Amino acid sequence: MNKQSIKLSVDAVVFGYEEGIISVLLIKRKYEPFKGKWAIPGGFVLNDETLECAVERELQEETGIKINYLEQLYSFGDPERDPRGRIVSIAYFGLVRPNAFKIFASTDASEVEWFNIKELPELSFDHENILDLAIKRLQGKITYEPIGFELLDKKFPFSDLEKLYVTLLGRDIDRRNFRKKIISFNVLDELNEKVSKGSGRPANLFQFNKKRYFQLKKEGIIFEI
Amino acid sequence: MNKQSIKLSVDAVVFGYEEGIISVLLIKRKYEPFKGKWAIPGGFVLNDETLECAVERELQEETGIKINYLEQLYSFGDPERDPRGRIVSIAYFGLVRPNAFKIFASTDASEVEWFNIKELPELSFDHENILDLAIKRLQGKITYEPIGFELLDKKFPFSDLEKLYVTLLGRDIDRRNFRKKIISFNVLDELNEKVSKGSGRPANLFQFNKKRYFQLKKEGIIFEI
DNA sequence: GCAAAAGTGTTTACTCTACACCCATGA
DNA sequence: TCATGGGTGTAGAGTAAACACTTTTGC
């Protein structure tokens, strides 16, 4: 019917957060094109795997990371986006918890590194566009879906959550109002555990109750910062 | 490097609105698989065209329609979604104005028809999922972006806009509050033209000022119903 | 006992909601 | 003059924003 010679790849923008810094996972390309340049991890989709499997496989192969949250971001199909020919890429958007920060390089990557999203290197292909879009999505989405918790440890002090939002939204937050609002959504369980950060009063730990969130969402309750 | 045999297609969910009814454009398939069944218009992407061009070309070929608003919806890549083999489809979401309702069938389509989204026929492939997602997107998006105007005539009475929102949101709206809110966004120009709908007081016509909207959006003003 | 971070309520401004009558036209 | 849809304001409720002191711990 037609002689299509388009290839399909997936790319994954993976974000991590720690100590007031949002980082993105990049690899240094081992082969041409853009050999030695930084890029978003990704690769070709195999004939029999789902797109999500392809993303997870490529991330595993290139960086060894285990992803905590994954969603489709956007598909990039400009005919000129890849010098090797027509390669359409379906980009994904992933989040990992701080303890998943251990990474290693292999297959197509000579190095893997976390980059502060405010100090990014030059990127290969159209990956700068992809990353820009992913950052916008992250910033937008944390205001109307509780995905911020996927960037924190399972048990976290309230101040960590607050600092994450301050970092992502780029503006100050009133501690009392923020706490009131989050608590009012009724999706956090307060634990009987405390954690001390060196100095100051130890903080109570909280845990995001995903089951309760989905229950409330079904009932029409809306999460909005 | 790899022997990928994935094909890439685009599909377009096109919505139209008239008289309190949201319709979607479907084609009846002329060939196997699913010959004689209804489907969302779409087809394979050519090697050298952008994805948007592919969508517009397929819509032109199959239905003759001119689209007014187009955005990417989601990419569907389940290996089993098409009995012909591995076909990944990038779905788009389009809106047309009422006067674009004239359609004709050709190429892959034996018939083209507008279906009320509340009275849909059985669909081919995974098109029911695609359509469901598109409907959710439409319903969600009109509450935070002014895309509803793309479904109305360029000049429209306020009551048309209100009826559109009532239809899409599936709940009643207070006429005074709705008008106040929309007016307060300052993206409508009130024209010195009136239109009469047979009986009753003639309504003033309004026009969406897209340029002003983008200006205000840049300044951080948020459209939200 | 002091430095550092955690925790907590109240008042005020603003936004959203509910609600009913008059207006302009065609038949 | 009546039927039909268009156009308009205000009061009360609810939500969001501003704001400062006390508590608990480590050193």
From TrEMBL, chains A, B:
CDD domains: NUDIX_NadM_like. The keyword Transcription regulation does not apply. Pfam families: NUDIX (PF00293), WHD_NrtR (PF21906). GO terms for molecular function: hydrolase activity. SUPFAM superfamilies: Nudix, Winged helix' DNA-binding domain. Residues 5-139 form the Nudix hydrolase domain. Keywords: Hydrolase. It comes from the Bacteria. The keyword rRNA-binding does not apply. PANTHER family: ADP-RIBOSE PYROPHOSPHATASE (PTHR43736), SLR1690 PROTEIN (PTHR43736:SF4). Belongs to the Nudix hydrolase family. This is 8-oxo-dGTP diphosphatase. It comes from Mariniflexile fucanivorans.
